[in-house]
Structure formats: C-alpha cells, structure tokens
Design goal:
By secondary structure, the chain is mostly beta strands. The protein contains two helices and 34 strands.
C-alpha cells in the first residue's frame, strides 16, 4: 500500500480526492472531535478549548483526530506550540471529512491577530524546538479560514520529518482585502522531508513561506490573490511541481537556498512586476509559462529574462557523474493514483485482532476472500486509540475479486529478492531494474521477479552510496573515494 490511514485500510492511497467524503466505521479507532471532545462544528459555538484538549490528549501516539463536516469556530491559536524534541509533540493526523465541508475558522476581528507585524498562528501542527524527528504529521481534507479583519493571522503552520504530508487542504482569508500574514507557514527549523500535495492558498501577504529546511516537495499547488508575494523560499531546499499562481504580485522569490520549479503557470501578473525573483545561484526552472508580467525571471546577477515561456534554465553549477549535456532527461512524470474513498460502510470488512503483535495473516486472507465473494471493497483493522498496539503480517496475501488493485491495494510481495539497502533505480529499458546491497549491485530484467548479481563492491572499504548510469551502463560506488565500473 502507498499509505494507510489509521485504521489500516486496504483502500487508502497516497492522495484522496478533495470532493470525497472520508468516513469510517464506528469501531475504526479514529478520534472524533465531536463525539469524544464535544466540539460542535456549528459555526457559532467557540470550539477552541475542545480542539486544543483533543490535540493535547491524543498527540504523541500515531492516532487520527477526525473532524466531521462543519465549521469549527476558534478564538485563539490551536495546535502544538513550544514543542520539544523527542517528546509527545508529534505523531498526529488531522483528518477532515472533506476539504470543502470541514472548516476551522478564526473569528472575525479576533484579538491577538490584528497586527501584521506581530504574526500569530491559527492552526499549528508543530511550533517549537528545532528537531528532525517530528514524524508522521498529516493534514488531510479540510480548510483553514482566517476570517475577516485578522491581518496578523498565519493560517497553518506545518512540519513533518521523513514521513508526513498534507493533502487536499485549502488555506484562505475571507477578508475583502485578503488580509492575513502567511497562508502556509513552513518556516519551522529542520522541516522535511515531507510532501505538500493538492493545496490551495487564497489571500495573505505571503501565500507560502519556508525557513531553514531539510527538503520540501510541493505538487499541484495553487496560489491566488496574495498581497505581496506568492511563494517565498527564504532558506528552503525546495522542489515545486505544477504551481498555478493567479497574482498581480511576483509569484516566486528564492532568496538564500535552492529551488527547483517545474511546470508552472503564472498568470495575472502586473506589467511592472517580475514573475520569478531569484537571488541565489541555486535555481532550476523548467516548463514555465507566464501571462501579464513585464518580465518572466530576474536572476541573481540582476539580469531579466523575458517572454511568455521558459523551456529550461538554471543558475549555478551543474554536476554530473559522467560527461553529458547539461540538460534534464525529461523523463515523464506520472500522477499519483487517486482511488475513490468507499463511503458505503456496508462494503467495509473488518479484520479482528486481540493483542499486540498477533499474526493476522489468516484472518486477513479470510476477510479478503469474504469481501470478494460478497462484492465488498475495503478491508480494515480496528485501531486501538491511544496505544502503540499493532498486529503483524507474516504471509503473502492474495487480493482478488472486488477487493482489487483498482480498489487501492497497489503492492505485491516480490519473493526471493536480495536484501537491498538502497532504493531501486531504473535500468536501460522497461523491466530492467538495478538494486544495491552492502556488498554488491544486482539487476533484474523482468521487473523484479528474478535477480542476478551485476558487480561486487570494490575492495577496500564499505560502500555508503551506489549509483548507476543507464546510458553508459556504468556503476559507481562511493567509499572514501569514487569507483567506476563500466560494462
């Protein structure tokens, strides 16, 4: 599986379509902020205390806070603040029922949010001590609205390390002047790696702003009606694919660190403005289109680049492991599959388990067989909320019938593969794969069904990084030095 919600659900995939209604069986184990903590979500009642209590009690355990459709009115910041490294200030998923239907909204003209020079966060996934272990942070299928008359409001502060993401989220200002300081705040130190996908920011002075990060990846990002700047990459190591900006102000500014921008449509620009402002010799752009701006790009040397489109351009030094033209290969970028969420709970089948570490292989296969026979689609393991208890799986599972690959289970066990220590890389043609262990490089000509050794590691030290050049059929191994093996 690409990704599982808690509870573990065979239907779940990396992205869930924003128009869908994300619902769970009553015994799934998600923590409903209405049912458990008394949040009203009626757009009238102040839900600040209920939401904060839920976060305080559930954080630190990989649980899911579930927000059914409704407008949750808040009058102060909610979330994790003054976070500490290696503590309970992490491991939390915020799951809305739908992006349009679940709204966390700041009261209009709210005290504390009226000064843009003193920004204040509305919703914080993590704010505090710099750390590299705020893992498993997720925000999915909801909207954060900073209301009217709150120019100092910061919509959403997000951080996650290694595993964590934001999917199908809108962050908006309802102010007539689009008032608000920052929409999506990624300034927390040591942020990433994490994925921000299918996110829309409407209004604010800055739509998105980064800080000192490990790495951030944005895909399908929409920015509209910012007052000063769309995307401010202050000091982030950032990749953005499919940016859609509708702004009269500059769409992107890269200040101190590196940015890769691929497939961007930057429209609505003012004739006196420049779409992309780059101030660092660490910038790569490809397939950029603009409309309305006086200039497409201004580089770190102050030179402007004009025109309606830019095919490929970089500023800085290009590095390669082997001689080649300093251009990208333009390999196709495939979209992440999005599988419809099963909203008919009668088509969910439960796998019962009774204790931590219990082998549920037989029970899971039985549930799949039952679902296939009855035309059901989704298998789930009830989550034991506020515990670290999980079952285990020690046998292959045959998924068939109505519980199919199309329903979301995208992984198959590949038996008898070597114990790879690094990720697989594509080879010279379709079905050709290269994998690496601590001692050798292996290859498969049939998509991973069978493997053979390609080359042993060089003598004289441990290899801490492998790479492969499919054009020249050359292996590289890095120990203290770099070794090359050409076939």
């Amino acid at each position: 599986m690409k990704r599982c919600l808690v509870p573990i659900v065979l239907l779940a995939m990396t992205g869930m379509a924003s128009a869908e209604s994300i619902v769970f069986p009553p015994d799934a184990g998600v923590v409903d902020v209405k049912a458990v903590y008394g949040a009203k979500g009626d757009g009238v009642t102040d839900d600040t205390q209920a939401i904060q209590k839920a976060i305080d009690e559930v954080k630190g355990i990989p649980d899911t806070l579930y927000f059914p459709n409704g407008t949750y009115l808040v009058s102060d910041s909610v979330g994790i603040f003054n976070g500490k490294a290696h503590s309970r200030d992490r491991f939390l998923t915020y799951q809305g029922q739908s992006e349009a239907g679940t709204v966390i909204r700041l009261k209009d003209n709210c005290p504390g949010f009226g000064d843009s020079s003193k920004p204040k966060i509305v919703f914080s996934v993590y704010e505090g001590q710099g750390t590299g272990d705020v893992m498993h942070s997720y925000v999915r299928n909801l909207t954060v609205d900073v209301g009217r008359g709150n120019p100092g409001a910061v919509g959403l502060r997000f951080m996650s390390n290694n595993s964590g993401a934001m999917y199908h989220v809108t962050i908006r200002s309802s102010d007539p002047k689009m008032a608000g300081r920052i929409g999506l705040d990624m300034r927390q130190g040591q942020n990433g790696p994490c994925l921000i996908q299918h996110v829309t920011v409407i209004g604010f002075d800055h739509g998105v702003e980064t800080g000192d990060t490990f790495s951030l990846v944005f895909e399908h990002l929409t920015l509209k009606h910012q007052n000063v700047l769309g995307f401010f990459n202050a000091n982030g190591r950032t990749t953005v694919r499919d940016l859609k900006s509708v702004n009269s102000v500059p769409a992107v500014r890269n200040k101190w660190e590196s940015i890769t921008l691929v497939e961007a449509d930057l429209t609505g620009g003012g004739k006196d403005n420049t779409a992309i402002l780059n101030e660092s010799p660490k910038c790569f752009v490809r397939d950029i289109r603009q409309d309305g701006y006086g200039h497409l790009l201004k580089d770190a040397a102050g030179k402007t680049h004009d025109g309606a489109a830019l095919d490929e351009w970089y500023e800085g030094k290009a590095n390669a492991l082997f001689p080649c033209e300093a251009k990208t290969l333009r390999l196709p970028i495939k979209e992440t599959p999005e599988v419809p969420w099963e909203t008919d709970l009668s088509k969910w089948v439960k796998v019962d388990w009774s204790k931590a570490g219990e082998d549920v292989g037989e029970a899971l296969q039985g549930a799949v067989d039952k679902a296939a026979k009855e035309g059901k689609t989704t298998i789930y393991f009830p989550r034991r909320a506020r515990t670290y208890d999980y079952p285990k799986l020690t046998r292959p599972i045959r998924v068939h019938g109505s519980v199919s690959r199309d329903a979301g289970l995208t992984w198959q066990l590949v038996p008898n593969s070597p114990a790879f220590t690094e990720g697989l890389v594509p080879g010279k043609k379709e079905g050709h794969l290269i994998g690496f262990t601590a001692d050798a490089a292996y290859e498969s000509a049939d998509g991973g069904d069978t493997w053979k050794k390609a080359v042993d590691k060089p003598k004289g030290g441990a290899v801490f990084m492998w790479s492969y050049d499919p054009v020249g059929d050359v292996f590289y191994a890095q120990t203290g030095s770099i070794f090359r093996y050409a076939r």
